Amino acid sequence: MDNTVKVKRESKNKIRVDFERAPLGERLKAKFLNMYFLKKVVFLIFKLVLLVGVSYVILYPYITKIFGSFMTASDFKDATVILLSKNPTLDQYKYIITENGYFSAFLNTFLVSLSIALIQTVVCSLVAYGLAKFKFKGNNIVFFLVIFTMMVPQESLRFSMKMFFRLFGTSNPIGVLLNSMGLMEMGFTNSIVPLYILAFTGLGFKNGLYIFLLRQFFRGVPDELEESAYVDGSNTFRTFFTIIIPLAIPMLITVFIFSFAWEWTDDFYTSIFFDPGYWDKEGSIQFMSSITGVPESLKLEVKNLEAYASAITGTATILIALPLILAYLFVQNYIVQGIERSGIVG
User: Fold this and answer.
1) Residue 308 counted as domain residue
2) Comparing C-alpha atoms, which of 72, 83, 66 is closest to residue 315?
3) CA 20 to 30 Å from 263, out of 37, 84, 234, 240?
């Protein structure tokens, strides 16, 4: 056996030496003019073309929005202008920021998104921990209902949710009680209160996803850690907050980021709980979803020019997404780590 290995090693060394002593032309011919090398080159070219093609299809809409944000109305009337403006300008950004109340919407959206994300993270972690670690009758049914909330189309509940909160003071015992105490009128209209009710009760559309992610993580935590804490006299809540939560920080950060991003770009709930003309009223609470309209200074140019109006909406979308993109650069490691530890992949 050893002699065979020795002979093979010596044969390989001899072939290598003979190859290095051969003329340069013969070495290049032997190295590159063979089927193995040609197959490798063809496969690399195929992968490159496929990658470029897929990237183009995915990125082209974003590229057109970015280039369109620097165009003027005259560029959209000029058939020779495709992507690059002949007279680049920052007017779209300028008027959206100054006339559509970008900074006011930024502050309001940040505060609401931050508070709701914190509430949802806490509530969903408690629910997920109970489903993962406690065995009780109906555990699987409750978890099925959590998963079911992820499958129900949002639009199918739009009208019923809108009427429920508009008639909150007459449609359920809690609302009737608050109404009788003078703490509220008939219902919630043009208010952010429904957003907090959904967050506190864990009934938001995305809460099912957050509970699922956290439940998968908590199921991977060894039961011995909790049992040892119980032996030392720790109760359930103390064990949860002192042992489980520190282990779940990457997953909690991931859920918080998901929740924050959803609230930041939300236009589903705001379209339900706020009247269409609410944003045009003086003194109304501005959110990111309300800055996509055409600024007053550009309305005359937009008249009978739908492409320019669409470009302005795209510019507002860029301004809305920009803070999330910048934040993602700093928290992407937490997101990847949280998804990996959830047990969904790998």
Assistant:
1) no
2) 66
3) 240
Whether the per-residue pLDDT at 319 is higher than 80: the answer is yes
pLDDT of 222 above 90: no
pLDDT computed for residue 149 by the predictor: 83
Are 29 and 112 in the same domain?
A: no
Rounded average pLDDT over 184-188: 66
User: CB-based burial of residue 330 (10 Å sphere; 0-12 exposed, 13-18 middle, 19+ buried)?
Assistant: exposed
- Give a yes or no: residue 228 inside a domain: yes
In a domain, 230, yes or no: yes
The CATH code of the domain that includes 247 is 1.10.3720.10
Q: What is the 3-state secondary structure (H, E, C) of the chain?
A: CHHHHHHHHHHHHHHHHHHHHCCHHHHHHHHHCCHHHHHHHHHHHHHHHHHHHHHHHHHHHHHHHHHHCCCCHHHHHCCCCCCCCCCCCCHHHHHHHHHCCHHHHHHHHHHHHHHHHHHHHHHHHHHHHHHHHCCCCCHHHHHHHHHHHHHCCHHHHHHHHHHHHHCHHHHCHHHHHHHHCCCCCCCCCCCCHHHHHHHHHCCCCCHHHHHHHHHHHHHCCCHHHHHHHHHCCCCHHHHHHHHHHHHCHHHHHHHHHHHHHHHHCCCHHHHHHCCCCHHHCCCCCCCHHHCCCCCHHHHHHHCCCHHHHHHHHHHHHHHHHHHHHHHHHHHHHHHHHHHHHCCCCC
Q: Say if residues 315 and 69 touch (Cβ distance below 8 Å).
A: yes
Which amino acid is located at 199 in the chain?
A
The total number of structural domains in the chain stands at 2
Same domain, 115 and 226: yes
In a domain, 59, yes or no: no
Say which residues have a Cβ less than 8 Å from residue 337's Cβ, sequence separation at least 6. 250, 254
Buried/exposed code over 114-125 (b: 16+ C-beta within 10 A; e: otherwise): eebbebbbbbbb
pLDDT in tens, 107-152: 999 999 999 999 999 999 999 998 888 888 888 888 888 888 888 8
pLDDT digits (tens, 9 = 90+) for 230-247: 888 888 888 888 888 888
